[in-house]
Structures are given as C-alpha cells and as structure tokens.
C-alpha cells in the first residue's frame, strides 16, 4: 500500500470513530424539523429517530395536551409524579434539543437525587414551596441549594446530581424545560441499589462504608 492509501485509511478510521460520537448529542437540526417516526418506512435516519416525510407533517406532530391536570402522588414511594413531554410524546421534538416535564409533589414528597446525562434543566415553581439543590462534581462536591416559592426559577446544570423536596404544607407543582429531546434520567438510589442483577453487596458495603446486611436491605427495597 502507498503512503497515500495509508493516510486515507487512517482518516477513514478516525472519522468512523469520531462521527458517531458527534452525532450522539443533540446537534444543530440542519432543517426546519424532522418529526420522529418509529419505523424507517418512508423515513430518513438523522439522529435518534427516523424522520417523517415533511410533506406529511401536521400541527399534531408538535402538540401535547393535559399538562394542566394534577397527577396522583399517593402510589409513589417518594410522593411525586413526573409527567414527561419529550420526543416520545411529541415526535416533532426530534433533533430540536429541548423537552418539558410537569412534576407533582405530595406533602413531604420529593423528586429524589438524580441526573440527566444529556440535559441542563430550568425549573419554575407553579404552586407550593420546594427545597432544591444540586451538587458539583468531585472533588469539590459543593451543594448549591435554595428554597423556591411560586414563580421562582432554578437551573440544574447538565449531568449534575440534583433533587427537589416539597417542604410546604400543601402539594406543589413545578414545570421544567430540559435541553435535550431525550434527556435521560438516572435515579441514584434506584440505579445503585436496584440494578438487575444486583451489584455484589460486598462491593457496595465498601463503597458506602456500611454493613453488607444494610446494603441487602436496600437492594430488597429497590427491587434489585
Ligand atoms: C402519575 O399519575 C397518573 C395520573 O394521575 C397515574 O396514572 C400514574 O400511575 C402516576 N404514576 C406514579 C408513578 O405514581
Ligand atoms: C439545608 C441546607 O443545606 N441549607 C444550606 C443551603 O445553602 C447555604 C449556603 O448557600 C447553606 O448555608 C445552608 O446550610
């Protein structure tokens, strides 16, 4: 093989490594819209979902209804209920890098510590009082916390662990926008103690400096 062929192959393999990484985030949309469809029939693959033929787009591809309704918080062990409005509910959000949630909190309810691997979140309180916070990454692990009332807005930077807890005497409601069509959620306790199959309790006992029995109890609670 000539030098030219060699460097051409090197560039090709570099591209094949870097290109999928570049496409794996919410990119500039490159077109007005790209309504997600679940099958490739009549579609073109861009990112995340196949696109519907733009000629067939309708207003309903960009529409969702019912976020005015309070959600039930009784059946949740943490006393909250998150209603997601992302690309799975609004296919027209495909490639647009944005989505929404409504969060209902019962009295003493919380949205427990979690992260969104692909999104920054901006939250506005519609009703009630929330104690909220996020923690910066290691080694500082600094807590940024705030008590929010109706009309207050707070930002949770991308990827950082954050929470909201209803500290008022009434149910609370918040809405939040997230900078991804599909932000993803990692609930810390469920992920660590509820994995299937379970992480070896001896590993987590060392991690959390606890007796393995306590870990096994937690794993039972989180259904690992
Ligand atoms: C959230 O609320 C809806 C409607 O009130 C209910 O059907 C659903 O089971 C609730 N989800 C959780 C996790 O409590
Ligand atoms: C309850 C709690 O952790 N409150 C903290 C919120 O953040 C301030 C600093 O901005 C701390 O002084 C509080 O202790």
UniProtKB/TrEMBL annotation:
SUPFAM superfamilies, per database record: RmlC-like cupins
Native source organism of the sequence: Cardamine amara subsp. amara
GO cellular component: apoplast
Annotated Mn(2+) binding sites: 114, 116, 121, 162
Main localisation: secreted
GO MF term list: manganese ion binding
Family indicated by similarity: Belongs to the germin family.
Membrane-spanning ranges: none
Keywords in alphabetical order: Apoplast, Disulfide bond, Glycoprotein, Manganese, Metal-binding, Secreted, Signal
Localization: Secreted, Extracellular space, Apoplast
The protein's role, per its UniProt record: May play a role in plant defense. Probably has no oxalate oxidase activity even if the active site is conserved.
Residue sites binding oxalate per the record: 111, 116, 121
Name of the protein in its database record: Germin-like protein
Disulfide bridge positions per record: 34-51
């Amino acid at each position: 093989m000539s030098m030219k062929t060699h460097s051409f192959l090197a560039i090709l393999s570099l591209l094949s490594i870097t290109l999928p990484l570049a496409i794996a985030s919410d990119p500039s949309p490159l077109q007005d819209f790209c309504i997600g469809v679940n099958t490739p029939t009549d579609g073109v693959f861009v990112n995340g979902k196949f696109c519907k033929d733009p000629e067939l787009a309708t207003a309903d591809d960009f529409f969702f209804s019912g976020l005015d309704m309070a959600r039930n918080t009784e059946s949740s062990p943490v006393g909250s209920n998150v209603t997601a409005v992302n690309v799975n509910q609004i296919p027209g959000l495909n490639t647009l890098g944005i989505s929404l949630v409504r969060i209902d909190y019962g009295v003493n309810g919380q949205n427990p510590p979690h992260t969104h691997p692909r999104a920054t979140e901006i939250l506005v309180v519609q009703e009630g009082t929330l104690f909220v916070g996020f923690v910066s990454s290691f080694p500082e692990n600094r807590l940024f916390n705030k008590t929010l009332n109706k009309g207050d807005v707070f930002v949770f930077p991308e990827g950082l662990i954050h929470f909201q807890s209803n500290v008022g005497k009434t149910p609370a409601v918040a809405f939040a926008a997230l900078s991804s069509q599909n932000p993803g959620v990692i609930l810390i306790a469920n992920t660590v103690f509820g994995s299937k199959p379970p992480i070896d309790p001896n590993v987590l006992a060392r991690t959390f400096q606890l007796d393995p029995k306590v870990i096994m109890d937690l794993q039972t609670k989180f259904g690992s």
